[in-house]
Amino acid sequence: MIKSHNNFLYSIDRDLIQLNKNLKKMIIAEHPILYAAAEQLFKGGGKRIRPALVLLIAQVTTIDQKIKAEQKRLAEITEIIHTASLVHDDIIDDCEKRRGVDTVHNLFNNKVAVLAGDFLFAQSSWYLANLNNLDVVKTISKVITDFAEGEVQQGMSHFDNQISIEDYIKKSFYKTASLIASSCKATTILSNCNRNVQKDFYLYGKHIGLAFQIIDDIFDIISSFDNLGKPAGSDLKNGNLTAPLIFALEEKPELNYLINQEFQNTLNINKAIETIKKTKAIQKSKDLAEEHIQLAIQILKKKYSYKNIENLLLTSYYILNRIN
């Protein structure tokens, strides 16, 4: 390959730098507490994979690879929506840290955090409406419904050892893949692409999103606080049974005892993590993530020249190689 997995974003470097600057300008709140809460969210930085995909797809689907102003704004909207969902996630899961930075509800309180999340959703909706494209509004606004659906599904299946991989994938779609798939599709709408192209990039985003979530869930088991920016085993503690645990249950039914005990203490969480690591569950989860990455890649490879989609392919490999 011509470029390494590390510099696949070189063509949009400037756009991503500008995006970070714009995000802070876009979050305008009259109340200082609300402003401070919103600003706190962008301190941790994060991977910015969602806006990066929007910008890269814009390059692939526009004439002369010129990214439109509306597509740059869509990238910003996508990151604001994602960040809003994290605030509500952190309240529900009672996370003290996110990307190594104090979470909003931990720094202020739950009430302020709920309002900050709602405020970000409202801001993103306002900017979305200002794109003046009804198809894009319809595509992206569906995501916010999916977030709620995903949270409800997750809440209803806490510590449920009967959850299947199919249930887990469905929940992962609502919580993560829906936003990535929809923003990929919305980018092609802004490029005036036909419905077949829109569908291709929606499916590409869907599979990338599912792989991304599976890999995040693997990290929750195998990583340290320094790498995660939050304690390992957070999903177990909150009763969110993810791919590694679901696969591990097939080999180690004794994990059911710890699930039924609702991982009462750190000792139980550590015991569960050690048990999972002794099984083939991590490898099976990696294989599942790779399956979705390969599905995403095949969608593009069938219809587009390697030269045009090289950076999108490298992004896909980067997501997978985070755990290698």
TrEMBL record:
Cofactor (UniProt): Mg(2+)
Source organism superkingdom: Eukaryota
Keywords: Chloroplast, Isoprene biosynthesis, Magnesium, Metal-binding, Plastid, Transferase
One of the protein's GO biological processes: isoprenoid biosynthetic process
PROSITE patterns in the cross-refs: POLYPRENYL_SYNTHASE_1, POLYPRENYL_SYNTHASE_2
Entry keyword annotation includes Transcription: no
UniProt-recorded Gene Ontology molecular function terms: metal ion binding; prenyltransferase activity
InterPro entries: Isoprenoid_synthase_dom_sf, Polyprenyl_synt, Polyprenyl_synt_CS
Pfam family for this entry, one: polyprenyl_synt
Keyword rRNA-binding appears in the UniProt entry: no
Alphabetized NCBIfam families for the sequence: prenyl_cyano (TIGR02749)
Family: Belongs to the FPP/GGPP synthase family.
Record PANTHER family: ALL TRANS-POLYPRENYL-DIPHOSPHATE SYNTHASE PDSS1, GERANYLGERANYL PYROPHOSPHATE SYNTHASE
Protein's name according to its UniProt entry: Prenyl transferase
